[in-house]
Design a protein that fits this description.
Distance between the termini: 19 Å
Order of helices and strands: EHEEEEEEEEE
Strand content: 35-45%
Helix content: under 10%
Number of helices: 1
Radius of gyration: 16 Å
Structural class: mainly beta
């Protein structure tokens, strides 16, 4: 757990979402449905900061050499005395493949920092009883600091 009292948390990560164009390298099986590959992305990606209530977190998202690179700094929101956020997300309305037959989501990623606060949101369903802006299925993303890509 991160302690944000009077401090700034710097998060720098390099991620490749189902970077399956190099399937043999990452052991992607024949029955895997690739939802995105940064080798040849079918979606437009952008980084978003926490723009409300005085948020001061910043970040960038770029695609370099077939890898999605997400970097940034998460800063405490003074008004809330809580951490802000940054996120990488798609910005177009192109459809993703049908994954209703899938039992899990795998991400091929690596990070160069120890951080336990990564989260992932997938889909656009509105959770029953969820707040107005609460869309997608959300989960913690546990990833170890390493120089090598790993499947989570």
């Amino acid at each position: 757990m991160c302690n944000f009292v009077n401090s700034t948390l710097v998060v720098v990560a390099t991620m490749a979402l189902l970077h399956a164009c190099r399937a043999a390298k990452y052991n992607v099986s024949d029955d895997t449905i690739v939802i995105e590959s940064f080798e040849d992305p079918m979606h437009t990606w952008q980084e978003m900061n926490d723009p409300v209530m005085g948020g001061k977190s910043t970040g960038t998202f770029s695609i370099e050499g077939g890898v999605g690179k997400f970097e940034g700094e998460v800063v405490e929101v003074p008004f809330l005395h809580a951490p802000g956020f940054i996120q990488a997300r798609t910005t177009n309305s192109k459809k993703y493949p049908d994954v209703s037959s899938c039992k899990a989501l795998e991400i091929v990623a690596k990070t160069n920092t120890d951080y336990a606060g990564y989260r992932i949101s997938f889909g656009n369903a509105h959770a029953p009883g969820g707040k107005y802006f609460a869309y997608g299925y959300k989960s913690h993303l546990e990833i170890e600091r390493t120089d090598e890509f790993q499947t989570v």
